[in-house]
From TrEMBL:
Gene3D superfamilies named in the record: Cytosolic phospholipase A2 catalytic domain
Family: Belongs to the lysophospholipase family.
UniProt lineage: Eukaryota, Fungi, Dikarya, Basidiomycota, Agaricomycotina
Transmembrane parts of this sequence: 641-662
Record bears the keyword rRNA-binding: no
EC code(s) of this entry: 3.1.1.5
UniProt keywords, alphabetically: Glycoprotein, Hydrolase, Lipid degradation, Lipid metabolism, Membrane, Signal, Transmembrane, Transmembrane helix
One Pfam family recorded for the sequence: PLA2_B
Catalytic activity: a 1-acyl-sn-glycero-3-phosphocholine + H2O = sn-glycerol 3-phosphocholine + a fatty acid + H(+)
The protein's name: Lysophospholipase
Species in which this protein is naturally found: Lentinula boryana
Database matches in InterPro entries: Acyl_Trfase/lysoPLipase (IPR016035), LysoPLipase_cat_dom (IPR002642)
Signal peptide: 1-19
Length: 713
């Protein structure tokens, strides 16, 4: 396989960017690829906070959509505007630029994002009937973070289907997310069951293939592969435990422009967000607001933070670079931007929950934690790692902005979950001044309180970062409630709210923010959407009820002091989405009477804030819609679980009786097909070292064949 990858390096550049999607080993990047001409190729571009530039490919895509697909989508959504009291003919060429943001929060966030997007998707009949369907089609950007990155990636690598089909399947080419199969233990709690061993074998085969190229791995890599099984497009229930497909290995984030929906300009421009732990920090707590925040687009890995303000061509991410050029003109790396690894990087939260001393992963269920630790221990016994609890990226910005960029002298970056600094909604990229967004839509599925509901904390933290660290480079947040308690007391966390409705300047001094939080059902039903961040398995009924509640909340708005849906909410959402167009016309068009009525109901006025009493009878405590789901699962798999225990006892007896034979097998290499994996390393499986017993990465030596590509600093 590595020879094949090297040969590909001698082909034209378009060929080396093509995805290999035949084997789980295609998770390995291609190394030692001859680079494009170093004298004429821009690998890393720079800008300043006061003179920002966008990637030309991003700019072309977004502008082309605005002038074609989005222009038509506005006309489809608003028609002639008469229902709002406008004549939309006057808005032609002036429609606002809109961005959507999907937060972190594991599978809850991924499902919340999907259900909320379905509520603003013109392809969904109930959303279209309510008038909310259409906002997705007129949006230019879609950002995702952690669990929000999973729904973002899944949308694109499944060719932008409807959200219900994406999550639940369509009985044809889409099989859904298969969330009833647990991420880390898809065949149940028995780690040594035949099918779990097949699964772990596939995961480890991918990771070992990457490590064999000389690129350091970590727990983020098996995590990325687990994400791929559910959210990319090559896995179904029939092949889940086989290697009949690559299970998303070889699918590259930089290949998103090749999907048909992108080529038809049907999709927003996707951006993932990840945080960084500065080299040498080794913090296991939440970050401050200071460390650099990065974004991943189909074209760049970049940061618009003033301290860096630079981006690298994503195709060559993974290439050792210094001073904006590859270190070795014959040793470029391609294929580092595996889609699963991009999503895994954005969701790499292990630096805060991986307990080295006690060999535990906090917050996950015991089963999921055991599964992740088992794979990590097997990984450590086979391959070299650098930092086990982060996503290891070769630093493309080595030697860049030496006076301001903290990691300028580092050859590696330690990237972690995009919410590690407290910004759980990926709003930063949408406030970048060069992107010039008029309307920003945070879909807030955060779990800020003890009942797993948002309380505005993430919005407030982003507002603080915007007004301090990012003041020169980003637009500012409009006025918000002053703290999380004020978000609660005003009731704005319980329903859709518009912030920044009445700017005092033209152009407006801030974008209009349409805040759509995860809320208890407006009609007083028992809530099922406030599940835990670390829940990695859902029954089909749990999925469906959660999805339906979020979708219904998204399309319904609220009627003050009642538990009724607002029949005008769809039109009020249209009023908010199009409002900034008024400021682009000279003279400014007055807001229509109908839209002013909507703004009176939905806008946050800091001088006359609303009250929690306007949203009565919302239940806060989660009620499981399928409490027998787990019991039924255990009952249905009772024989399998018993068999696993019996098999383990027999296994131990065989191990003791055949110690000499097992020692001979210990040195045997990992075989090419993982159906044989369960017969390998059984001594290690039954007598595993705990994670904390392994030598720490700092003491590992780089094999000689790897040192030519990557240094250890």
């Amino acid at each position: 396989m590595s020879c094949l990858r090297t040969l590909i390096g001698f082909l034209a550049l378009p060929a080396i960017t093509a995805a290999f999607e035949d084997s789980v080993a295609d998770y390995a990047p291609a190394v030692n690829i001859p680079c494009p001409d170093l004298s004429t190729t821009e690998f890393v571009r720079e800008w300043t906070a006061s003179n920002q530039t966008l990637n030309p490919n991003e700019e072309e895509y977004v502008q082309t959509r605005l002038n074609s697909t989005i222009a038509q989508a506005w006309n489809d959504w608003l028609s002639d505007g008469s229902q709002l009291g406008y004549n939309t003919t006057s808005f032609q060429g002036h429609f606002p630029k809109i961005g959507l943001a999907i937060p972190g929060g594991g599978l809850r966030a991924a499902q919340f994002g999907a259900a909320a997007l379905s509520g603003i998707d013109a392809r969904n009949e109930s959303a279209k009937s309510a008038g909310t369907g259409g906002l997705l089609q007129v949006s230019s950007y879609l950002t995702g973070l952690s669990g929000g990155s999973w729904i973002t990636g899944s949308l694109f690598f499944n060719n932008f289907p409807t959200l219900g089909e994406l999550v639940f399947g369509n009985g044809n080419n889409l099989t859904g997310w298969l969330l009833d199969l647990a991420f880390a233990t898809p065949d149940g709690d028995d780690l040594f069951s035949e099918y779990n061993q097949y699964f772990y074998g596939s995961i480890l085969w991918s990771v070992m293939a990457k490590a064999d190229t000389g690129i350091d791995t970590s727990i983020t890599d098996p995590w990325a592969r687990m994400i791929s099984f559910h959210f990319l497009n090559q896995t179904n229930r029939q092949n889940f435990f086989t290697n009949d497909t690559a299970h998303g290995a070889g699918q590259l984030w930089s290949n998103i422009p090749n999907i048909p929906a992108w080529q038809q300009y049907e999709t927003p421009f996707p951006i993932l967000v990840t945080d960084s732990r500065p080299q040498g920090l080794n913090a296991t707590t939440a970050l401050t607001l200071d460390p650099t925040v990065y974004e991943i687009t189909p074209f760049e890995f970049a940061s618009y933070d003033p301290d860096l303000s630079a981006g690298v061509n994503l195709t060559f991410a993974g290439t050792p670079m210094t001073n904006k050029k590859p270190v070795n003109a014959t040793a470029c790396v391609t294929g580092f931007d595996q889609a699963g690894f991009m999503m895994g990087t954005s969701a790499s939260l292990f630096n805060q929950i991986l307990d080295f001393a006690h060999n535990t992963i906090q917050d996950f269920s015991q089963s999921d934690g055991n599964g992740l630790l088992y794979v990590l221990s097997r990984q450590l016994s086979e391959v070299r790692t650098r930092a086990d609890d982060v996503a290891n990226w070769p630093n493309p910005f080595n030697g860049v902005k030496t006076s301001t960029y903290d990691d300028s002298n580092s050859t590696w970056l330690s990237l972690i979950d995009g919410a590690s600094n407290g910004e759980n909604i990926p709003l930063g990229p949408l406030f970048v001044k060069a992107r010039a967004l008029d309307v920003i839509v945070p879909l807030d599925g955060s779990a800020d309180d003890s009942n797993n509901w948002p309380n505005g904390t993430d919005m407030l933290i982003t507002a603080e970062r915007l007004s301090s660290i990012l003041e020169a480079s980003h637009q500012q947040m409009p006025p918000l409630p002053q703290n999380a308690q004020a978000f609660i007391d005003t009731g704005v966390r319980e329903r859709a709210t518009f912030f920044g409705c009445d700017p005092t300047q033209n152009p407006p001094e801030f974008p209009l923010v349409i805040y759509i939080p995860n809320t208890p059902p407006f009609n007083g039903d028992d809530p099922a959407a406030n599940t835990g961040t670390f829940q990695l398995q859902y029954t089909p009924k749990q999925q469906q009820v959660l999805f339906d509640q979020i979708h219904n909340n998204t399309i319904s708005g609220f009627v003050p002091n009642t538990n009724d849906a607002d029949p005008n909410f769809g039109k009020c959402l249209q009023c908010a989405a199009v409002d900034r167009a008024r400021y682009k016309i000279s003279p400014v068009i007055n807001r229509s009477d109908f839209c002013q009525t909507c703004f009176t109901q939905y806008c946050y006025d800091p001088t006359h804030p609303p009250s929690l009493s306007e949203v009565p009878n919302r239940k806060q405590i989660f009620v499981d819609p399928d409490p027998q789901g787990l019991v039924n699962f255990l009952s249905e798999n009772k024989n399998k679980l018993i068999g696993g225990v019996v098999g383990l006892v027999i296994f131990i007896a065989l191990l003791i009786g055949g110690l000499v034979w097992w020692k001979k097998r210990r040195d045997k290499k990992f075989v090419a097909h993982y159906h044989q994996v369960s017969a390998l390393h059984e001594e290690e499986e039954l007598n595993m070292k705990t994670y904390s017993q392994y030598i720490r990465p700092e003491s590992y030596e780089i094999p000689a064949h790897r040192g030519s590509l990557y240094t250890d600093s």
